[in-house]
């Protein structure tokens, strides 16, 4: 792997400074109330420099969330390699997702407001297929090792699991994210009928 040069490091650091400054202002003042000139003044940079790094304020939201999701996705990929049974891997992944969501709840809400606006051109979710691929590998491993049912297609189990994550993220219940998802995971694994 090639080492990053000084120029690339500086560019990466400048982009990070702009993004973090912008997020602080978005959360403090509001997205629409924050001007590009204000972001750059706060960051100690010229206004024109903004467009060398980001096409718009909206791109900062997507970039920032994608960066955090990439870190969580890498942790989930690492968990997949651990010497644990598949159920324990899924539990650890839930914790990673829950902690990432809790730490970035305001950013996620900001992204969802942006993502659900009327103009959605070029506004795909920032996480892609990485997370689904990790889940699929774990489910397939569980089926191979007879921990999970083989009569249900892997993609159905993965879709159910991702559905649980989505409903938990949009939940208005007073339970914490981890509590909420653990209840749902328990229902998925053990069922709702008392035996």
Please specify the SSE layout and strand pairing.
Elements (H helix, E strand, L loop, with lengths): L5 H24 L6 H8 L6 H4 L3 H25 L4 H18 L1 H11 L14 H15 L9 H16 L7 H14 L5
Short account of what is shown:
This protein is an all-alpha fold and 195 residues long. It has helices at residues 6-29, 36-43, 50-53, 57-81, 86-103, 105-115, 130-144, 154-169, 177-190. It is built from 9 helices and no strands.
Could you characterize the architecture of this molecule?
The protein is mainly α and 195 residues long. The protein folds into 2 domains: 1-54, Arc Repressor Mutant, subunit A; 58-190, Tetracycline Repressor, domain 2, CATH 1.10.357. It has 9 helices and no strands. The chain has helices spanning 6-29, 36-43, 50-53, 57-81, 86-103, 105-115, 130-144, 154-169, 177-190. Helix 5 packs antiparallel against helix 9 (177-190). The protein is elongated and about 65 Å long. It starts with 5 loop residues before the first helix and ends in a 5-residue tail after the last helix. The model is unreliable at 120-126 (pLDDT under 50).
């Amino acid at each position: 792997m090639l080492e990053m040069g000084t120029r690339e490091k500086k560019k990466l650091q400048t982009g990070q400074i702009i993004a973090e400054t912008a997020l602080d202002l978005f959360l403090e003042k509001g997205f629409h109330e924050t001007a590009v000139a204000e972001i750059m003044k706060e960051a100690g940079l010229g206004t024109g420099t903004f467009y060398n790094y980001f096409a718009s304020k909206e791109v900062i939201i997507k970039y920032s969330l994608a960066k955090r999701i990439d870190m969580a996705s890498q942790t989930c990929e690492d968990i997949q390699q651990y010497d644990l049974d598949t159920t324990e891997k899924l539990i650890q992944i839930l914790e990673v997702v829950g902690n990432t969501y809790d730490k970035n709840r305001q950013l996620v809400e900001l992204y969802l407001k942006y993502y659900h606006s009327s103009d959605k051109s070029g506004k795909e979710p920032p996480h892609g297929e990485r997370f689904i691929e990790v889940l699929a590998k774990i489910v397939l491993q569980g089926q191979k090792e007879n921990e999970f049912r083989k009569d249900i297609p892997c993609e159905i189990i993965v879709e159910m699991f991702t559905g649980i994550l989505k409903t938990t993220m949009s939940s208005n219940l007073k339970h914490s994210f981890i509590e909420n998802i653990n209840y749902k995971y328990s229902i998925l694994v053990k069922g709702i009928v008392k035996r």
